[in-house]
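Throughout this review, each integer encodes one residue's backbone shape. One record appears below.

===
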Amino acid sequence: MKIRSLTKREERQVLTSMLAGLNEPIDNSWQSMLKRQVVALAIPFLIAAIALGVLRAQSMLTLFTTAGTLIVGLVIGYGVLRITAARHWPVVAHCLNRDKIEQRLRELDA
């Protein structure tokens, strides 16, 4: 499988977000982690409950249960990805060289 290289715009976005992460580290306290998990889990369940409450038709139950489960699974997966990235960011941040990132951004802007 061939992986395409990043465009200049995509590379600029990645480098800018890396610099932002170095400037303001992600809060990894247990309170903020709990908030992220609760939000990631509560929103899809509320959406599914509202959809099933509004559309109580028996024939639509299977369709909305399947769609709701799919949405819940996607949101939970995305939440786990973000939580894992936040948990591992302090380790990764030590490996980054701020000067090289800023130099590459200047090259991209030129």
In short: Residues 89 and 95 are 10 Å apart (CA to CA). The longest helix spans residues 61-93.
